[in-house]
Write a structure and sequence with these properties.
The protein has a five-stranded mixed beta sheet with strand order 3-2-1-5-8. Strands 4-10-9-6-7 form a five-stranded mixed beta sheet. 43% of the residues lie in helices and 16% in strands. The protein has 350 residues and is of the alpha+beta class.
Length: 350
Amino acid sequence: MTIIVTISAVLILVVLGLLLKIQGMVDVLRGTHHKRETLSNKVNAALFPVFLIVGTVAFVWFSIYASQFYLPEASSIHGKVTDKMFWESIYVVTFVFIATHILLFIFPYIYQFREGHKATFFPDNNKLELIWTVIPAIVLALLVIGGWKEWSSITGPAPADHVELEIVGKQFDWMVRYPGADHKFGKHDFRKIDGTNVLGLAFTEREGMDDFMADKVYIPKGKAVLFKIRSRDVLHSVFAFHFRQKMDAVPGMPTQFWFTPTKTTAEMRAELNDSKFDYAIACAEVCGKSHFAMKQTIIVLEQSEYDKWYNEQKSFINKNPQYISMVPDNLKAVAMEQIAAPAKVASLVP
């Protein structure tokens, strides 16, 4: 069908070209070729509304067809606000797009050249200039101010009872660290990075002794979650698309954002009827040849499930007691307490 339509369109254009050429030859034979208004002028003018109709039908069809590729409803409070702002912008842009294209294609038809008609000299109109400058400025200002307020919210201080974790990008994966029971991160030092201590944990203060790493991102439903973000090498970008959150991971410049999940992984699987669904973080910056592999799974749990998982985790120093040599003498007792902690189950959701 596509081949037939394409061949038909080409043949129509060929026929139109031949008709225009024949009309020109007839005009020459009649001695009327000096006329400025020719068949080609009328044909080109008529084609403008035709292209408008065909283009509008194609635009509407593609808009409906593309809807199957949209993301599901946002799974965070901020995500729903973001979606609302997105569609408000789309409605404004679509209205302007349709209005300007109607004028763009209809005007050449209405005001096509005709013998005996003279165009009006119209150098400027201050009223029109004012209208199409002030109205877009006001609309854009409202859209930008709304976006700025939301951006300021998610990048500002998180609520006092928030959950906090660190996401670190490197070529080519994401590393996740949680603070321990004290809910405070210890310091890190790039000079301490090795094959095991991939985050360069420094162990120079009490707060870092109970920090632990996770193979996935675990967060609770209904509570604010603060992502503290940094990069170990090049520019990456934390894109949690189901929550409509995105923030660059910039080397040497920590960034952050926070959001509140509204659906657990289990609820989302039931809603989509997909038992294999998982929330995910993708890298939205082309960071190298294996950029495509930078994906991290997010597991959203009920608060009680999250608390159970969190309390079962073992600190990094517990899993890797060989790093006790890095601990200052005045903190070795704290480190030994972590190493002596009983082994616990580290996995809750497959």
